[in-house]
C-alpha cells in the first residue's frame, strides 16, 4: 500500500468528506498529584520516531496541518513542530475571544499557556481541532470535559516548571522577611531608610505549605535547607519530605505558620479558599504567598488584612484577571482592587512569572510539543489530562499493509462489539481500549489492509452512533 496515498478526515461531528477532496484533512492519566505518586517522565515516545525500524504514521501531508501557538511558546516547542513540517503560526500574546474564535476555526492543533481561555463557547467553533497543548502546568483555562466530549485531547507539562516556582518562593520568603521590596523601591526613589524593625531571619520560622504536590514538595526541601520548620496541608495523605509534617486541617496550618504559601490547583474547592475567616485564623505578623491561581485568594480580604497590620507582608504572582500580553495594563479596569493593592507596604507583586525561567520554558516546549506530535502522528494519549491513556508499540516498516485505527467514542455498552465486527474483516494485531468518564478511546493496529479498504473502514466507524471521532493512521 503506498504510504500517504490517501488522507482520511478524522474530526468527529462533521460529514465525512470524499477521500479525494480531503488532502488537507487529517484525522493524545491523571497528572500525578503528590511527591509519592509515580511521576510521568517527560514525553519520550518520540524515541519511536527515531527508531530506524519504526514506521512513520502520517496519513496526511504534514504541511497541511495548521498549528496556532499563543502566548510566546518557547522556541524549543516551535522547532519540534516545524520539524514535522506542520504550518506553525506563533503569536506572542493571547487573543481576545472574538479573534480566538476566528483563528481556531481553521487549526488542527493549538498551543496555549495560562491566559487563553478555551471555553466551550470557543471550542464549539474549532471544527478541525484535534488536540490542545497547554505549555504550562495549569489546565484550568480549558474546558477539559467539553474538549474530551468533542474528541479533543489536552496535554500539559505537569512538572517542568515546579523547581522554578519553588525557587521564586524561597526568594520571596527572604524578601518579605527583610522588607526588600520596600527598601529597594525607596532607594530607587532616592530615600535611604536603614531599618531593622520588623525584619527577620527565616531560620527557625515555620513555613505552611497548602498543596503538597510538585511545587509544594520542592519548596519543602529548599525551605528546610534554610533552617525553616515545614508543615503542610493537603486533601490527600502524603509522606512529608525531610522532617516536614502534614497537619490535618487548614486551620491548624494557618494558626501555626509564619509564612503561608499556596500551591493548589484552581478547582471548585480552592476558589476563595483564603478569605476573611482564614486571615483571621493566621498569626499576627504572618506573611501570605500565592503563586497558584488568582481565584484562590480573596484579594480584597488580603488588602484589609494588610492594612490592619494582621499581615506583615504578602507576595502575589497571580490575579483573578490577568492581561493577555505585556504592557502598561495592570490597572483597575482589569481588577477593581488594583490601586489599593499597589499602595500596600511589603507586598511583592509579580506578573505570573513563577514558571518563567529559561530552563522551565525550554523543557516545557520540548515536553508538550513532543506530546502533540505523538498524538497527531501516532494517536498516543500518554500524558493527556482529559482522555484515558492509550498507547501501542509502533508499527514497523516490516508491516507495510497495517493501519492504526483510533476511535474515540461515547462510553456506552455494546460499542466494542460493533467496532470489532467492522475491524474483524482484517487481522487485529493489537488493540487497547480504555475509558475516562463518558469518553472512551480505542486504538487498534490491523493488518492486511488494502488502500481501497480504508475509506470503507473509516466510514463504517463514522456511521456508528457512538462515534465522537475516527482517525485512520498508516
Ligand atoms: N505561578 C506560576 O507560574 C505557576 C507555575 C506552576 C504552577 N502554578 C500553579 O500551581 C498549582 C500547583 O502546582 P503543582 O505542580 O504543585 O500541582 P500538583 O497537582 O502537583 O499539586 C497540587 C496539590 O494540591 C493538593 N490539593 C488539591 N486541592 C486541595 C485543597 N482543596 N486543599 C489542599 N490541597 C489541595 C493536591 O492534592 C496536590 O497535592 C498549579 O495547578 C498551577 O495552577 C503556578
Ligand atoms: O506560563 C504560564 O502562563 C503559566 C505558568 C503556570 O501558572 C503554570 O500553570 O504552569
Task: Indicate the mean pLDDT.
Answer: 89
Fraction of residues in helix: 25-40%
CATH architecture of the largest domain: 3-Layer(aba) Sandwich
Distance between the termini: 9 Å
Classified in CATH, the superfamily of the largest domain is NAD(P)-binding Rossmann-like Domain
User: Any idea of the CATH topology of the largest domain?
Assistant: Rossmann fold
Q: Which CATH class of the largest domain?
A: Alpha Beta
Q: Which outline best applies?
A: elongated
| Unreliable residue stretches | 1-50
For the largest beta-sheet, the strand count, sense and barrel status come to:
7 strands, parallel
Put simply, the count of helices is 15
Strand content: 15-25%
Structural account:
With 474 residues, this protein is of the alpha/beta class. It has two domains: 190 residues, Rossmann fold (3-Layer(aba) Sandwich), CATH 3.40.50; 188 residues, 3-Layer(aba) Sandwich (Rossmann fold), CATH 3.40.50.720. It is built from 15 helices and 16 strands. The strands form three sheets. Strands 8-7-6-9-10-11-12 form a seven-stranded parallel sheet, with helices on both faces. Helix 2 packs parallel to helix 13 and helix 6 packs across helix 8. The N terminus is likely disordered. It binds nicotinamide-adenine-dinucleotide (NAD) and (2R)-2-hydroxypentanedioic acid. (2R)-2-hydroxypentanedioic acid binds next to loops.
Compose a concise summary of this entry.
The chain is of the alpha/beta class and 474 residues long.
Topology (elements, then pairings):
Layout: H1 47-50, E1 66-69, H2 75-83, E2 87-90, H3 97-104, E3 109-112, H4 120-123, E4 131-134, H5 144-149, E5 153-155, H6 162-177, H7 180-188, E6 206-210, H8 214-225, E7 229-233, E8 245-246, H9 250-256, E9 259-262, H10 276-281, E10 286-290, H11 299-307, E11 311-316, H12 338-343, E12 347-349, H13 358-378, E13 403-410, H14 415-423, E14 427-436, E15 439-447, H15 451-462, E16 467-473
Parallel strand pairs: 1-2, 1-3, 3-4, 4-5, 6-7, 6-9, 7-8, 9-10, 10-11, 11-12
Antiparallel strand pairs: 13-15, 13-16, 14-15
The structure holds nicotinamide-adenine-dinucleotide and (2R)-2-hydroxypentanedioic acid.
Biased composition (Polar residues): 22-44
Function: Catalyzes the reversible oxidation of 3-phospho-D-glycerate to 3-phosphonooxypyruvate, the first step of the phosphorylated L-serine biosynthesis pathway. Also catalyzes the reversible oxidation of 2-hydroxyglutarate to 2-oxoglutarate.
Organism: Cladosporium halotolerans
Amino acid at each position: 500500500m503506498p504510504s500517504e496515498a490517501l488522507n482520511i478526515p478524522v474530526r468527529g461531528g462533521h460529514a465525512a468528506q470524499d477521500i479525494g477532496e480531503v488532502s488537507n484533512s487529517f484525522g493524545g492519566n491523571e497528572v500525578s498529584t503528590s511527591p509519592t505518586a509515580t511521576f510521568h517522565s517527560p514525553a519520550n515516545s518520540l524515541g519511536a520516531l527515531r527508531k530506524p525500524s519504526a514506521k512513520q504514521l502520517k496519513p496526511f501531508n504534514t504541511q497541511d496541518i495548521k498549528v496556532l501557538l499563543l502566548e510566546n511558546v518557547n522556541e524549543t516547542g516551535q522547532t519540534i513542530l516545524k520539524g514535522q513540517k506542520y504550518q506553525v503560526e506563533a503569536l506572542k500574546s493571547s487573543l481576545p475571544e472574538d479573534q480566538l474564535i476566528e483563528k481556531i476555526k481553521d487549526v488542527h492543533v493549538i498551543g496555549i499557556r495560562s491566559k487563553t481561555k478555551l471555553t466551550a463557547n470557543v471550542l464549539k467553533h474549532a471544527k478541525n481541532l484535534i488536540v490542545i497543548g497547554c505549555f504550562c502546568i495549569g489546565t484550568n483555562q480549558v474546558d477539559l470535559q467539553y474538549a474530551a466530549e468533542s474528541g479533543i485531547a489536552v496535554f500539559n507539562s505537569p512538572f517542568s516548571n515546579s523547581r522554578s516556582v519553588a525557587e521564586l518562593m524561597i526568594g520571596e520568603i527572604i524578601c518579605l522577611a527583610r522588607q526588600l521590596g520596600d527598601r529597594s523601591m525607596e532607594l530607587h526613589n532616592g530615600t535611604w531608610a536603614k531599618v531593622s524593625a520588623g525584619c527577620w531571619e527565616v531560620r527557625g520560622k515555620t513555613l505552611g505549605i497548602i498543596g503538597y504536590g510538585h511545587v509544594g514538595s520542592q519548596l519543602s526541601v529548599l525551605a528546610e535547607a534554610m533552617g525553616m520548620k515545614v508543615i503542610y496541608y493537603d486533601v490527600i495523605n502524603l509522606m512529608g519530605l525531610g522532617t516536614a509534617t502534614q497537619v490535618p486541617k487548614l486551620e491548624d496550618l494557618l494558626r501555626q505558620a509564619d509564612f503561608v504559601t499556596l500551591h493548589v490547583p484552581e478547582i471548585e474547592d480552592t476558589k476563595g479558599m483564603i478569605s476573611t475567616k482564614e486571615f483571621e485564623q493566621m498569626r499576627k505578623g504572618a506573611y501570605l504567598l500565592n503563586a497558584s491561581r488568582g481565584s484562590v485568594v480573596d484579594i480584597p480580604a488580603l488588602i484589609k488584612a494588610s492594612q490592619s497590620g494582621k499581615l506583615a507582608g504578602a507576595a502575589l504572582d497571580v490575579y483573578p484577571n490577568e492581561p493577555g500580553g505585556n504592557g502598561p495594563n495592570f490597572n483597575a479596569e482589569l481588577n477593581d482592587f488594583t490601586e489599593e493593592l499597589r499602595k500596600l507596604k511589603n507586598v511583592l507583586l509579580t506578573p505570573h512569572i513563577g514558571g518563567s525561567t529559561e530552563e522551565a520554558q525550554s523543557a516545557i516546549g520540548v515536553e508538550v510539543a513532543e506530546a502533540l506530535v505523538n498524538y497527531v502522528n501516532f494517536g498516543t494519549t500518554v500524558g493527556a489530562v482529559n482522555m484515558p491513556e492509550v498507547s501501542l508499540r509502533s508499527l514497523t516498516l516490516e508491516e507495510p499493509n497495517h493501519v492504526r485505527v483510533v476511535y474515540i467514542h461515547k462510553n456506552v455498552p455494546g460499542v466494542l462489539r460493533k467496532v470489532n465486527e467492522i475491524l474483524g474483516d482484517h487481522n487485529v494485531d493489537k488493540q487497547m481500549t480504555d475509558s475516562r468518564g463518558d469518553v472512551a478511546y480505542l486504538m487498534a493496529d490491523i493488518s492486511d489492509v488494502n488502500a481501497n479498504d480504508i475509506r470503507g473502514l473509516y466510514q463504517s466507524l463514522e456511521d456508528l452512533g457512538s462515534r465522537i471521532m475516527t482517525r485512520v493512521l498508516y
